[in-house]
């Protein structure tokens, strides 16, 4: 039944599957789509999710294939956004690999510069472009700028003569998309118009698949023309990324990278024996995009599948690895940067380095004295708590300070909305939580009916008599939430959040008393750094830690307390 | 420094990386290798591990590529075990997809039958072939059988005439490997000798790449010859898998599947317009192997990379999905089967269905009264505990029954071996664990020096006076182990083990007292089923559970206690 899908985890999985299917459809790359969803989308990956994504992506590919064979070619002509590179002979030589490596480094530098500039622009945008009116104005000016550049530059393009080509070859079909634009007749084409006044996939195909020369003598595109395409496109990508309307990153960076790669290829061609400029264009395109978004496997797969040639794996991997490493030496990926600038509580795969080296404990970063409810509590108090905070979850604390469980805001709101009060019983009976028999007032189907849009606290109205009645939360709560003790090392708690996809984690003292609560915000790098700055004791602990932290990793592969109970006064020298 | 690699987690990661590199080298499939390591090898997957595997696989591919261009062709001629299928035109038509689906179902049935037969054989083998002598005898007979079949059958093969072919075409190079064997001169070839008396990769190439006919008239291989190759190979694969020496599964099943696929392709060819038999051979080979090992993504990727043609993704995915589904309807994969038969505590990605549907709790499956140590304990007691059990980890319990931490067998053995006793202090001082200052007797480097081969308890000799001295375990223990409460649902504990790669998990009562310990063995399907059978109370809980278990999943995507405190007597009807 579909009931099993009505929860947040399945919703997240569905988003990941749809991402895989979307990439499969947009780029004709099902496996690249699966890896994209896992590498960029999913907060934690499981085999089951991988299979689901793969199934979804293959379904997309199958649908595309069947549509392609049924529909007339005017509607759909091919699934991939690129054409296959022929796999009959070698596309590159050994010495090209070093050029690809240099391109990877160059791409990493360009990407890092792009991210740095875009960061400043985004900070400015978040501070100043705030009202709908300003956003509209920004979009209008960006669109005008782009239109002026795209349509204005072709007027400056040179006309070149178009040679007679055999109409049956593949090159003819690419050469026929070169645009005459203002040039005299069909025998000539305008360089810049052929790049700018095209659909983006035709521009990419021209850059990737046209050979160096259509006829002996001058190349298809002059270096000046290619640079006149690269610079404005790179600039426009930087201006538009992060604006109020998604302009995209993939296509502009692939296009500008491809133009730059062709420049390199054309410069090397006279030296003899190097690969076709189209291969350089592809590798440089991947390096520029990789330098911005720091993806490796998924990007390599997307481009491999789109070009349909497995021999390109090595060049693409080399350039993507290097662009990632070089870029990461300067700043973080553009996606992470925007996530951080927008203050979304996204946890990176690894705990920040500072918390791993220093001996930071959970009790030093947690929120102490969490807002708690009693397992049987008064409706008015619950209402006030919900209205005063935006917390997603509340611990239920017994009178002896031990944890009974947790209950989510959604369920509390549903219960109040449905007025599920067990008010007729007297307080003393209800407060005796050792009583075994607890019958839920509402069955599951009732409480769950609002998913995923549970009533907000603002929509709930309670009378005074309702506010003094009691509600038994025990049947609706999670009686065994995840918990850690106060002395747990922060990296271990981080790992719990990340590997289990948690939103909150209870912290208990050694005797089971609730002492705090951790949320994703507490584990963000900024908060961890602030906690470190306020814990002078840590410095002395650190001395021990650095040399000794690996011992406990043998237990379960995580840094942990080798020596958690020493006082700060212990000397690190041997007794 | 390399110190960071000296722990069990890194060792496991290294094995996964090496797996990826090995598949990359053996099959020329780096990305397939990465997915193989993740799908079959890694117990839990992370992005970091994926990157490491990818780096390793690309390093392999790069080394291979460079060797290929340096060494003379006698040593290495190509990296992939298959040749590329040309990507210039379509390899199959729409109607072929339904044939591929049928092949997937057939492969699933064959694989399930193979696994079932091999299971019986393995049970027999584990029971009877136990001594080295018997193992040697088994291997000798298997080898003899294989040799007789492989060399005997070609004597029964028919001779066929070999046509004159253009020596520049690709087909010529395949046709030239057809073996004359006892036939008159180079103008003819022996069908069965051409399949049997080859290296396995040449046999696969012939089956995949030779067209239906070399000349008009009869096909390259008769159906009888192909079946005379399929049946013995399938039989031999069944006989040898699981023997004392690894014979391999991939190659025999690919070879027999390819022969069967060619039979189908040759049968369909007269009907006109279908794909070449080589494509059917590839799809059927994947279906037969997929039916045995139930891999989808990794197998599709390995074959895609080996054949270098992305257009084959759809046929391979369809056949692999179907062979997996059909096979799983009958039994588990051959790898899982052997893991279970050999009683290795490997946890499947998903908690067994029974524990998810029933409301099984951790306290119902855990080992109660675990063997504990005191934070400061007597050497003799530690020695006896280590000698009497094989446990990997021991909880440290305070006098008030709360958990102080855990300590591993390896570290205890090291401490005893190194005689790290703090014996000179009096018992009363040592036993006062509230004392803040604890100085470790040995530094980290000393305790860790034995990794990964820590001293076994049998190698440790202690004098009587040493046995009555005391040892302070606090500096060496993990003071914040992972723990759960008694009422935790089993699927949640399962998820902790699986997602964090745990070997043991402490169970505490609500007030922090240690009440039990969970290990991987407690979470195996057999043990869970036994616990279910012994918990009659569960039946009444189950009624609630089935309709209501989804509510708490909204919290963190895991089935949990909607209603954990009801007594078994609660009626499921509404009040």
UniProtKB/TrEMBL annotation, chains A, B:
<dbReference type="InterPro" id="IPR046342">
    <property type="entry name" value="CBS_dom_sf"/>
</dbReference>
<dbReference type="InterPro" id="IPR014743">
    <property type="entry name" value="Cl-channel_core"/>
</dbReference>
<keyword id="KW-0129">CBS domain</keyword>
<feature type="transmembrane region" description="Helical">
    <location>
        <begin position="280"/>
        <end position="304"/>
    </location>
</feature>
<dbReference type="GO" id="GO:0005254">
    <property type="term" value="F:chloride channel activity"/>
</dbReference>
<feature type="transmembrane region" description="Helical">
    <location>
        <begin position="220"/>
        <end position="240"/>
    </location>
</feature>
<dbReference type="InterPro" id="IPR001807">
    <property type="entry name" value="ClC"/>
</dbReference>
<keyword id="KW-0868">Chloride</keyword>
<dbReference type="InterPro" id="IPR051280">
    <property type="entry name" value="Cl-channel/antiporter"/>
</dbReference>
<keyword id="KW-0813">Transport</keyword>
<dbReference type="Pfam" id="PF00654">
    <property type="entry name" value="Voltage_CLC"/>
</dbReference>
<dbReference type="Pfam" id="PF00571">
    <property type="entry name" value="CBS"/>
</dbReference>
<dbReference type="InterPro" id="IPR000644">
    <property type="entry name" value="CBS_dom"/>
</dbReference>
<feature type="transmembrane region" description="Helical">
    <location>
        <begin position="247"/>
        <end position="268"/>
    </location>
</feature>
<feature type="transmembrane region" description="Helical">
    <location>
        <begin position="311"/>
        <end position="327"/>
    </location>
</feature>
<dbReference type="GO" id="GO:0016020">
    <property type="term" value="C:membrane"/>
</dbReference>
<keyword id="KW-0406">Ion transport</keyword>
<feature type="transmembrane region" description="Helical">
    <location>
        <begin position="49"/>
        <end position="71"/>
    </location>
</feature>
<comment type="similarity">
    <text>Belongs to the chloride channel (TC 2.A.49) family.</text>
</comment>
<keyword id="KW-0677">Repeat</keyword>
<feature type="transmembrane region" description="Helical">
    <location>
        <begin position="136"/>
        <end position="156"/>
    </location>
</feature>
<feature type="transmembrane region" description="Helical">
    <location>
        <begin position="14"/>
        <end position="37"/>
    </location>
</feature>
<keyword id="KW-0812">Transmembrane</keyword>
<keyword id="KW-1133">Transmembrane helix</keyword>
<protein>
    <recommendedName>
        <fullName>Chloride channel protein</fullName>
    </recommendedName>
</protein>
<feature type="transmembrane region" description="Helical">
    <location>
        <begin position="97"/>
        <end position="115"/>
    </location>
</feature>
<keyword id="KW-0472">Membrane</keyword>
